[in-house]
Amino acid sequence: MKSYLFAPGPTPVPENVLLRMAAPIIHHREKVFSDLFGEVREGLKYLFQTKQEVLILTASGTGAMEGAVSNLFSKGDQVLVVRAGKFGQRWGELAEAFGLSPVYADFPWGEPADPEKIKQLLDENPAVKGVLIQASETSTGVMHPIREIAEITAPRQDVVLVVDGITAVGVFEMPMDAWGIDVVVTGSQKALMLPPGLAFISLSEKAWRMAEQSDIPRYYFDLKKHLDSAQKNQTPYTPAISLIIGLHEVLSMLMEEGLENVFTRHHRLAEATREAVKAMGLQLFAKASPSDALTAVQMPEGIDGIELKKTFLERYDMVVAGGQNQIKGKIIRIAHLGYFDPMDMFQVIGALEMSLHKLGYPVELGSGLKVLSEKLA
Questions:
Q1: Which phi and psi angles does 109 have, rounded to 5°?
Q2: Same domain, 297 and 164
Q3: I want to staple 221 with a disulfide (CB 3.0 to 4.6 A). Which of 67, 237, 322, 374 is the partner?
Q4: DSSP class of residue 25?
Q5: In a shared domain, residues 252 and 279
Q6: For residue 10, cis peptide bond before it (omega within 30 degrees of 0)
């Protein structure tokens, strides 16, 4: 049987990218690497929609999140942490680990953050120096209103907006400069269609000014070192050379397709998947503002999400993601970010119908596929 990967990271890697990465290794201090790195730098600015440098770290996306916290703030600083899922909790864990003083803005899992509540908390806590949030909360399939929140933070000269865009960058519109977002981070194994191992972070001028005041010790994730090296088309330490070569290929693909078309493709797949799921009598876990990166499907009464995920794997060699923390067993998550096309969604929706049927859920076989066909025709 063929293996299929429908988890929201790692995601499938295109064959041409795999072939580029399989080429003989080059040395990272030679001109051949520096020339390639220079082209990658420009491609990343295009992707992030910024004039600022986009730094490449050899790490998972969490490494870039840690770099944001350790470079921008000082011990004891107050930060406003938006928690509406597992990865919002991670911002809080990082803040606490580095001795910051988090103020928590908690929202129910499955619901987007309320900009008015964030504004209220900022007004009530004038010492807050940063708002830490996800653009796309991967654990719940919800998209937060980043543009509206940026409108609140941008005029505040002592507050930076730090956005985890790990399942947002390359999925939907989030122009860093135009919206006034101060920090954006992402990882390679999502919409960038690469294996895990690279993290990316870009800082606004306001964020770089704040970084000058930080007193938190750091070494490997010292972003000033990465900035100085990047401007010479280099990295301060040995990079993941093969992944950067693959990134060069990916950025060429995205630039050829065009960002607007990339966003349209993701939205089309996401909308069709959501409607197909609802046609099967299922509900989305996202109560509002579902992310175009993935679809979180709420389990109906009598169906265990862990058992359903196991059925996908054992019967169809297909990996979907389950729920995390308090929603474990209550949802499954189907990815459609990165290297996915309409035919992929027919496979996963067909497998969902047959898996539910096997587990005794009264699904009408073909009901989801019919709507998927109508939406994608």
A1: -60, 130
A2: no
A3: 67
A4: P
A5: no
A6: yes
